[in-house]
């Protein structure tokens, strides 16, 4: 992506719906149409363990977004993405009520298939369903079948039960490290 990548300014959150991901990002990518802002990078899924996505994929909250070329086998050097049985959802356009995409859920496994160990990393993989679009008069789709991925780490249930332990951002950690043993009360006007 190079210099075309756009970083969101502070305070802006990338929080698209499934429909928006398919219609405003995956559809233009698949048909080689311009789309803005061009903030979702292209990645080769086979090169990265999910924990290595930071700084390479678009991060919003605890979710990573990126485009990748579709592959039947989704292996990496350290593991593989495995499709969870029976978990596929249709993405339907609210305006037209037509199916415009499919969302598949996958889980990352460490080790070699099929004997890997399941991790807490999940991926939602979005596929374009061209039957919901009028493609007459538009460009032919890119010969590369693109998918849009949303990857996140599922928190363990025990963390939720223990009073909602949360991780601090690096900026919060830096701030907390500057506080001495005696915290001073600061009041703002």
From TrEMBL:
Keywords for the protein's UniProt record, in alphabetical order: DNA-binding, Nucleus, Transcription, Transcription regulation
Any GO MF annotation of the entry: DNA binding
Protein's UniProt keywords contain Nucleus: yes
GO biological process: regulation of DNA-templated transcription; system development
PANTHER family: NAC DOMAIN-CONTAINING PROTEIN (PTHR31719:SF85), NAC TRANSCRIPTION FACTOR 56 (PTHR31719)
Pfam families from the UniProt entry: NAM
Keyword DNA-binding tagged: yes
Ranges for domain NAC: 8-154
PROSITE patterns: NAC (PS51005)
Protein origin, superkingdom: Eukaryota
Organism: Acacia crassicarpa
UniProt-recorded name of the protein: NAC domain-containing protein
Annotated InterPro entries: NAC-dom, NAC_dom_sf
């Amino acid at each position: 992506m190079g210099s075309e990548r756009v970083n969101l300014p502070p305070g802006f959150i990338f929080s698209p719906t499934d429909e928006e991901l398919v219609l405003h990002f995956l559809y233009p990518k698949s048909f080689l149409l311009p789309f803005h802002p061009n903030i979702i990078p292209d990645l080769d899924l086979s090169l990265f363990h999910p924990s290595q996505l930071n700084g390479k994929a678009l991060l919003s909250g605890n979710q990573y977004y990126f485009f990748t070329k579709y592959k039947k086998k989704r292996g990496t050097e350290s593991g593989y993405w495995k499709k969870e049985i029976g978990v596929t959802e249709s993405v339907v356009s609210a305006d037209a009520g037509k199916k415009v995409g499919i969302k598949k859920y996958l889980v990352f496994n460490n080790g070699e298939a099929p004997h890997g160990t399941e991790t807490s990393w999940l991926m939602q993989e979005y596929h374009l369903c061209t039957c919901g679009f009028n493609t007459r008069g538009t460009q032919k789709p890119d010969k590369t079948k693109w998918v849009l991925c949303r990857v996140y780490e599922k928190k363990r249930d025990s963390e939720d039960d223990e009073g909602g332990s949360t991780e601090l951002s690096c900026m919060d950690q830096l701030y907390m490290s500057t506080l001495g043993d005696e915290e001073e009360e600061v009041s703002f006007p």
